[in-house]
Write a structure and sequence with these properties.
The protein is an alpha/beta fold. It has one domain: TIM Barrel (Alpha-Beta Barrel). Helices cover 31% and strands 18% of the residues. Strands 7-8-9-6-5-4-3-2-1-10-11-12 form a twelve-stranded mixed sheet. The structure holds S-adenosylmethionine and iron/sulfur cluster (SF4).
Length: 331
């Protein structure tokens, strides 16, 4: 198809990055992410794999150059391998990069397939290396299994970034040892502030740690050199001096990143959210089913006309900024 118009929002930001939540289901129940008794979407409400691929391909035609598959836990969706292979064909031909964020629980079984399909980098969540703390945070996770998955991914040739949500009184004293471990084994590390998304069983404010405080502590132990790398999201980066390793701080609560936001998120139900912290949405499933590719294009244009200027997160607010969980929107 001849050059489709790029996706530029009403604030003049070019949208080049799409996150796709391929399922809202998960085999863990991290306390900051989900309630223990979560109600998941009925399978009939989900986009088919073919619909996800068609929508993603339309985004690529409209100038999206990076796609991240996430969830929920992407590796619990049985047919996810087919999607990865289909989107993998576009890497180097429209798409610069296809990536995935996973909890690592099933990574050992999938690492080889992911790299074969064209994925080169993955993010793996690892909030603690201590078996008890990890089990507590995830409610039933086995840290050895996840670490096994991380090494399997590295050995298969994937470059791995560890995601760690900083949680006061749970893992905030483990951050420096985690960075040491990452440097030793060749992983980058991104630290994340807990965000007020969806109801959980506890008050997130009790566990919130500003990353500015963590960064001050780390600066005393590591030679951190500011890095100009930007992803268009809330992350700011540093190099660990004398190494190739990068430290990222994802601090939507304490840093403003919205001016350079380049991303949108597709849920497993086919809803496009143009901001993690707002309810502005466009129903792409309906647009595709009722209007085909032309309907989809019109819906994408509508989305660009409504993307908010910035999020309004407030960790101290009595109710979360938005009622949907990160696992629905795609973290
Ligand atoms: N299940 C996969 C995983 O855990 O990596 C992918 C989905 S998960 C929603 C993506 C990322 O979002 C993870 O790094 C997780 O720690 C983070 N996350 C989930 N809920 C969050 C919240 N309320 N605030 C900040 N980060 C959150
Ligand atoms: Fe599952 Fe990831 Fe949420 Fe943890 S953070 S419950 S692994 S979706």
């Amino acid at each position: 198809m001849a050059c489709a118009p790029a996706l530029i929002d009403r604030h003049g930001r070019t949208i080049s990055y799409l996150r796709i939540s391929v399922t809202d289901r998960c085999d863990l129940r991290c306390r900051y992410c989900m309630a223990e008794q979560m109600t998941f979407l009925p399978r009939t409400a989900l986009l088919s794999l073919d619909e996800i691929a068609v929508i993603a391909e339309r985004f690529i035609a409209r100038g999206i150059t990076r796609i991240r598959l996430t969830g929920g836990e992407p590796l619990v969706r049985r047919d996810v391998g087919d999607l990865v292979r289909r989107l993998g064909y576009h890497v180097g031909a429209g798409l610069d990069e296809l990536t995935m964020t996973t909890n690592g629980n099933r990574l050992a079984d999938h690492a080889g397939d992911l790299i074969e399909a064209g994925i080169r980098r993955i993010n793996v969540s690892l909030d603690s290396r201590d078996p008890e703390t990890f089990r507590y945070i995830t409610r039933h996770g086995d840290v050895e299994r996840v670490i096994g998955g991380i090494f399997a991914a590295r050995d298969a040739g994937l470059s791995v970034k560890i995601n760690m949500v900083a949680l006061r009184g749970l893992n905030d004293t483990e951050v420096a040892p985690m960075l040491d471990w990452c440097v030793e084994h060749g992983f980058d590390l991104s630290l994340i502030e807990t965000m007020p998304l969806g109801a959980i069983d506890e008050d997130r404010a009790d566990r919130f740690v500003p990353l500015t405080r963590i960064f001050d502590d780390l600066s005393g132990c590591f030679p951190l050199v500011s890095d100009t790398h930007r992803s268009g999201g809330p992350a700011r980066y540093w190099r660990v001096g004398g190494t190739e390793r990068r430290l990222g701080l994802i601090s939507p609560l304490t840093a403003n990143f919205c001016d350079t936001c380049n991303r949108v998120r597709l849920t497993t139900e086919g809803i496009l959210y143009t901001c993690l912290g707002h309810d502005d949405r466009v129903d792409l499933k309906r647009a595709l089913r009722e209007g085909g590719l032309a309907g989809l294009d019109a819906a994408l244009d509508r989305a660009m006309a409504t993307k908010p200027a910035r999020h309004d997160f407030d960790i101290a607010a009595a109710t979360p900024a938005v009622s949907r969980h990160m696992s629905v929107t795609g973290g």
